[in-house]
From TrEMBL:
Domain B box-type: 393-435
GO MF: ubiquitin protein ligase activity; zinc ion binding
The name this protein goes by in its record: Uncharacterized protein LOC111113825
UniProt entry tagged with the keyword Transmembrane: no
Keywords: Metal-binding, Repeat, Zinc, Zinc-finger
InterPro entries per the UniProt record, alphabetical: 6-blade_b-propeller_TolB-like, NHL_repeat, TRIM-NHL_E3_ligases, Znf_B-box
Biological-process GO terms, alphabetical: proteasome-mediated ubiquitin-dependent protein catabolic process; protein polyubiquitination
UniProt keyword Hydrolase, yes or no: no
CDD domains: Bbox2
Intervals holding NHL repeats: 816-844
Length: 899
């Protein structure tokens, strides 16, 4: 788990920094350009109106002004959409940057519990607020290097005769204080300098393993490699601040500080020079540079007095020996090496190996080589827990059993536990993992997240932010063209059509404002996302620096969430079409100004974003929004109506009257909860004052209901045998009148419409009781008729408009719609219960897309709030899931579970 999580975190970090984050940045930069374009385009329309008005009579001035105002309004709305997009992208960039920094810091830590608490957020950033792509050109000049020319001439080596032992063996083990020992360098006087990745301390040991000296690096950063100069002074590389440093008896001197390149490995030469391996900051290039008078030891490579080359093969636990011409001589292996890393050779050709793979028993506090682990574990007189040496003393004691180590992790409780906790039964039937396995999974997740954030997500947002400015400029140019066209036409008209021109200008201003508003909304979405991505990057880097298994295990990737920019919308720009002057048709002579149209596109990849638990044990059926932050629910397990907030907190529970299971619920007039009691054939209203249920209608067998735009509600009503179904409209006054006991006054609601048959007197709805309905914003009545396997839509007068039985591409699939709702764009959304998905149709019944492959399980009831957030009541899992489906939709699915 730890490794998987760490890889995900590395990938997320790479995607955020390299792909996702640049897109919103570019998009954010383009928003002002789009707004400028809106102003320019709409100003052109105003100019056109003015020019036309100068040639016409005074009567057209008002119309031209009105049309220019409309252009301004459209430009403002267009810019507003771009502004919103720019804000979202910039916010994401900020957050991704922070996440990347946090991930890098977390990947450098050995805090097991901090790493296990890591939660990946790369999926959250995978979808950009808008899709903008840019590839910036780069030029990297290369300077002539005299040393490289000299190296091309070649070198003459000396004769050397080498005698090998038939069987190399380990002569001495020296235990250091590093979690991860990187490199070692021999000092000739039977002393060894060492460095590791666990701290910033350089340590000098003698061959008996005694620590003689400790030196903290100058910048307190972890050193990567060490070497000794001919004068036996220690030199080390610091990739973080791009420096090479010399350690003397009293101070540390910075020899070289590089620009744009990072030093890694180093070794000294026989001539006293220093060879340094360095790479470019983006890791696209690497090179070896010779510095006069310096020294380096590369990771896992050294040479002996005979010019033989020795290099460590850490994955195969052996050392290769090759001659100076690259011919293989032999291995050093089968001698207890475990992950050999750094190498050095003394004056008598003794090899010193920095072994990465030392183990440690965290209970006995004993260091173990690989050969000793099995023998140590064979002692069953006491407990043992062997961990990698770098993680020694990182496993904490159990809070409940103070003498026991927390070597297990309960994924359901999200806590570290000991074996006694496991044996106690407290975590029975919970998923239990080894803490080190969790640590490894989380570290892999963090590595993956970091890679995703840096290489994919972050660059994408930067590119998107840049494109926003271009879009704003185009909006302004378009606005100006429209205004100029209006002005030009107005100058050719007569004074008597002034009024008409003014009205058209007002239309332009309105469209301008709508256009700018749409851009501002888009800009806000982008600018809000950019800081979020920056913060996520910082958090991700910090998490990658840790080794806390618990923290890493909590990491959830969000890169997919940021991959797409917010709300792509299509704009049908207003145009001005001048015509020849005709006094009899003055209004037509001015021309027509088309309306601004902004459409939000559906996302390519809907995803579940959140989950909330409810308390129903037989199936949650219906959900209805009381507000944007509160929702009523009902299920088939009991007669209790429950009100939740979006955090899953139960705010109110109401027992139905007289404890019967409700068939359906709806919120009318934005505040009153109404539910149907099928068995008692009643419709009941829950008063908000004292949560008292009031029977308001007793007529027929009511099943499903929905609120209407006029403050009433629609109800499906069935005959006793279920063979006949009708939709009945109940209407009332504009506000419910209550008496002193908060009871609705008698006669408030009355039947004003009944819909049952089509124009040929055929039943509109099939026999059966499984009918659910919703009123669309165009006042169409939409019924999910599960018994017919269709969505039946009639207009407000009850005339059939269409039947939807599934998309044309899959006529063979069964279709059982249960829940149904509509959004602000008059789209129809209905649940496909058995196929685990939701169908989205336009207002005319044309299939748009599915919401599927996002872990929906038996979706049932649906509702939409004022912001087009979609709530889905799932029958089968007991959780509330939140998913984004379109540029405006957010889906929250509510499930049932036994409590």
């Amino acid at each position: 788990m730890y490794g998987t999580k760490r890889e995900l975190m590395q990938k997320d970090l790479q995607d955020l920094e390299k792909s996702i984050y640049p897109d919103p940045q570019e998009a954010a930069r383009n928003i002002p350009l789009q707004k400028a374009d809106v102003n320019q385009r709409y100003q052109k329309l105003r100019t056109a109106l003015d020019k036309q008005g100068e040639a016409l009579h005074i009567k057209i001035d008002t119309i031209i002004h009105g049309m220019k105002s409309e252009i301004d309004d459209m430009g403002a709305k267009h810019k507003a959409a771009l502004d919103q997009q720019e804000v979202a992208i910039n916010n994401s960039i900020t957050e991704i940057t922070q996440i990347i920094l946090d991930l890098k810091r977390l990947l450098e830590t050995t805090d097991v519990y901090l790493v296990t608490e890591y939660t990946s957020r790369t999926m959250e950033f995978m979808n950009l607020p808008s899709q903008f792509q840019v590839t910036l050109p780069t030029f990297t000049p290369l300077e002539i290097n005299q040393m490289q020319i000299q190296q091309q001439i070649g070198s003459l080596s000396k004769l050397a005769i080498t005698f090998f032992l038939d069987k190399p063996r380990i002569l001495k083990d020296i235990q250091t204080e590093y979690n991860r020992l990187l490199n070692v360098s021999y000092k000739r006087d039977r002393k060894l300098w060492t460095c590791g990745s666990s701290d910033n301390i350089l340590r000098l040991y003698n061959l008996r393993g005694e620590l003689l000296r400790s030196v903290e690096t100058k910048s307190r950063n972890v050193p990567w490699d060490i070497a000794l100069t001919q004068s036996r002074k220690l030199v080390y590389t610091n990739p973080k601040d791009k420096s090479l440093n010399l350690v003397s008896a009293t101070q540390i001197q910075t020899l070289i500080r590089l620009q744009g390149w990072r030093p890694w490995g180093l070794c000294s030469t026989s001539s006293g020079d220093l060879l340094v391996i360095m790479d470019s900051g983006d890791r696209e290039q690497s090179k070896v540079v010779r510095y006069s008078g310096s020294t380096e030891t590369q990771i896992g490579i050294t040479t002996d007095s005979r010019a033989n080359i020795l290099t460590s093969d850490r994955d195969n636990q052996r050392i290769h020996i090759i001659d100076q011409d690259g011919h293989f001589l032999r291995y050093i292996h089968k001698c207890g090496l475990k992950i050999p890393w750094g190498l050095c050779v003394d004056s008598t050709n003794n090899i010193f190996v920095a072994d990465w793979g030392t183990e440690h028993c965290d209970i006995c506090h004993i260091h173990l080589c690989e050969a000793c682990v099995e023998e140590h574990l064979s002692d069953e007189s006491k407990e043992h827990y062997v961990v990698p040496f770098r993680l020694r003393r990182c496993i904490s004691k159990c809070l409940k059993h103070s003498k026991k180590l927390c070597i297990r992790f309960c994924t359901e409780c999200n806590i570290c536990i000991c074996l006694h906790c496991v044996a106690s039964g407290e975590h029975e039937k919970h998923e239990i993992e080894d803490i080190l396995k969790m640590f490894g999974s989380k570290m892999e997740l963090m590595q993956k997240d970091l890679q995703d954030l840096e290489k994919s997500i972050y660059p994408k947002y930067q590119e998107a932010a840049t494109n926003i400015q271009v879009q704003k400029s185009e909006v302004n140019e378009r606005s100006e063209k429209l205004k100029k066209a209006l002005d030009k036409q107005g100058e050719a008209l007569h004074t008597e059509i002034d009024t008409i021109i003014q009205e058209m200008k007002s239309d332009i201003d309105d469209m301008d404002a709508k256009h700018i508003a749409a851009i501002d909304q888009q800009e806000d979405a982008i600018n809000n996302t950019i800081p979020e991505i920056k913060q996520f990057i910082l958090d991700l880097k910090r998490l990658l620096d840790t080794s806390d298994v618990c923290l890493v295990s909590k990491y959830t990737s969000r890169t997919e969430e940021f991959r797409s920019l917010p709300a792509q919308f299509e704009v049908t720009l207003p145009t001005f079409t001048p015509q020849e002057i005709n006094r009899e048709q003055i209004h037509k002579q001015i021309g027509s100004l088309s309306e601004l149209s902004i459409r939000h596109s559906l996302l390519d990849d809907p995803r579940i974003l959140a989950a909330i638990q409810t308390e129903y044990n037989r199936g949650l059926r219906r959900v209805s929004c009381l507000s944007d932050s509160e929702l009523w629910t009902c299920g088939s397990s009991d007669g209790i109506l429950r009100l939740y907030n979006l955090q899953g907190e139960l705010l109110t529970s109401v027992q139905t009257k007289p404890g019967k299971i409700p068939a359906d619920i709806a919120v009318i007039q934005g505040r009153y909860l109404v539910y149907t009691d099928y068995s008692n054939r009643t419709i009941n209203l829950v008063s908000s004052a004292d949560i008292e249920e009031v029977e308001i209608i007793r007529l027929g067998r009511h099943h499903s209901l929905c609120s209407t735009a006029t403050g009433g509600f629609l109800v499906t009503m069935h005959s006793k045998d279920g063979k006949e179904t009708r939709v009945v409209r109940y209407s009332g006054r504009e506000d419910i009148q209550l008496d002193k006991q908060n009871m609705p006054l008698l006669g408030y609601f009355s039947v004003t419409q009944s819909i049952q048959l089509d124009e040929r007197d055929k039943p509109l709805y099939a026999s059966g009781f499984n009918k659910y309905l919703s009123e669309n914003r165009n006042l169409d009545i939409c019924v999910a008729d599960c018994d017919a396997g269709a969505v039946v839509v009639v207009n407000a007068a009850g005339k059939l408009r269409f039947r939807y039985t599934g998309p044309p591409s899959s006529p063979w699939e069964s279709f059982c719609p249960r829940g149904i709702t509509t959004d602000s764009q008059a789209n129809i959304l209905t649940t496909d219960y058995w196929n685990q998905r939701i169908h989205i149709l336009d207002k005319d019944g044309h299939f748009l897309r599915y919401i599927e492959n996002c872990d929906l399980q038996q979706p049932y009831g649906l509702c939409v709030d004022s912001s087009d957030n979609l709530f889905v009541a799932e029958w089968g899992t007991g959780k509330v899931k939140k998913s984004n489906t379109t540029s405006k939709h957010t889906v929250v699915a509510i499930h049932w579970q036994t409590v």
